[in-house]
Predict the structure.
Amino acid sequence: MSSALDHDGGPPGDAVPNGLLPIAGLDRLQVLLSAAMGTVLVSYALLVPPTAFVMATGGDGVSVDAAFAATVPVWLAAHQIPLSIGGQPLSVLPLLPTALVVAVVAVGAGWAVRRIGGRFRADAGAVLASIAGAHAAVAVLGSALLPRSAAVDAAPWAAMVGGGLVAAAGAVLGVLRRCELPADLRAMIPVWVRPGLHAALRALLVLLLAGAVVLTAALVFGAPAVAAAYDALAPGFWPGAGVTLVALAYLPNAVVAGTAWVLGPGFAVGTGTVSVFASFPPAAQSSFPLMALLPAGPPPVWTLAVLLVPIGAGVLAGRVCRELQIATARVPAAAVAITVTTLVIGLFCLLAGGRLAAGAFDPVSVPPGLAMASVLLLVGVPAMLVAGVARRGEPDEAEWTEDAPVPAAPEPAEAEPPRPRTVAELVALRERQAAAAAAEVSAADEGAGAEPADGAGAVVEEGAEPIEIEGSVAEPLVEAVPEPRPEPDEEIVPGAGVEPPAAGGADEAGDNVVPFDRRRRRS
């Protein structure tokens, strides 16, 4: 069935997953529009409650219309679209709402591509274009429809780029998760790509987990400073709850900053700098809880030990690549792991920082260039070294090649003569059996002298086949020689020409007697 569906609106070789039937026409258009606008509406609706909660805890009260209107710039910020608040730039945007939008888009894209057929070439591009285009269009519309009297503003071109890229990233994840690659594309991917991606994923998890651990330790040891910031910014339970919700939205940014600190370059807030090598406090003390964690003095010497974490991540990535059975594919797999890890860390650092209202804490910088260089040095070098070292007890490279010597197979033990397997062998066996039977009949005739031996004058029938009895081959059945037909002028007398053998011997009756019995099977 799949071969017939390959050509139903899709290129040849575009596989259709089992149980799916491609749709076309208006039904296909309906699914694409539902996925595009559905992801826009769902992502927007999920941001309305937290926005309304933060507004309500501010003390001014909130209405339904105000909550929906305030969610528009929040939705734009979730797409990493730079904003302007009161004329001041704001591009340090929270990553947690961005992760929420990416997750919603990934789920919607996966549903759409499965619903219209699940073909990579015919369906994946349509789903990606429709969802990314819808988010980009709505982002431009939202930025243009913001009232001029509002304190928040966004550039339309930035809205188009940010909305389209974030939605496209989520759509790619959803399509790759639900849509199978065609066999010809899978055959073009080298064998070391997948292990390299697995190694990169493990290295990224180690680095981000280390950043989360550093942030947790900073929160524990800096609890007094955080409490003082809450008292200054939001005294009381409900205002503190609203500030906590905003801080949770920026929590992934803080984790990325902690990862950059583990890698060595650290991060900067305004004139302040934080790294494992040196720390300089900012010009003023911030009242935002996460900003209050900035150290006020130089780091202790033992903090240099955290540089062992990226080295360990590189060793882990190299060990994953070294599990490949093909020795020549390990170093390319390690190169893939290093490249992917470096690019992802650079992207996270780029998104975690930005402008912060041109004040004392502007800008917030997590330098992507220095972080990528640190990944190449502390993660890449150990990964390449570990991947390039042969495992203990591993055969030499020559044994992995096709020209490697093959050990000689042991000689087979002597066995019983094989049975006939071809027609020629069977015919030869029959001829030997016929010759043996004729020799046996001649010997019996010479030995008897008076009576012909049983089966004298018998011949082997051409259609007779040997019969297998207890592992041996018996002689074929023999047929009696037919009685000679009388001449046309002779009178046929019933019973004539067949007389019982005379008692005198075989010479007197042998001319008129024809044996008519069959030889019995010999065991």
Observations:
- The mean pLDDT is 81.
